[in-house]
């Protein structure tokens, strides 16, 4: 399952008062401020997903040794 970024991106694009879209809790839910900054900068869904790949690759490598079943 994937995070449906298109809804988030559309909601941000369609809002006329963009400064009210994000609150302090958004960064906590996202884990960092990176996603918020990417959305504010106008990144596409593909660009955002691509930015996650290096971290996902590192995570998958680390998690392999903890998997009980393959």
Automatic annotation (TrEMBL):
Gene3D superfamilies: 3.90.1150.140. It comes from hydrothermal vent metagenome. Residues 3-69 form the Peptidoglycan beta-N-acetylmuramidase NamZ C-terminal domain. This is Protein YzbB. Pfam families: NamZ_C.
């Amino acid at each position: 399952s994937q995070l449906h970024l298109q809804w988030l991106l559309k909601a941000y694009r369609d809002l006329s008062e963009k400064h009210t879209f994000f609150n302090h809790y958004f960064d906590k839910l996202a884990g960092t401020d990176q996603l918020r900054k990417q959305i504010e900068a106008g990144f596409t869904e593909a660009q955002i997903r691509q930015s996650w790949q290096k971290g996902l690759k590192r995570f998958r490598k680390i998690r392999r040794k903890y998997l009980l079943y393959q």
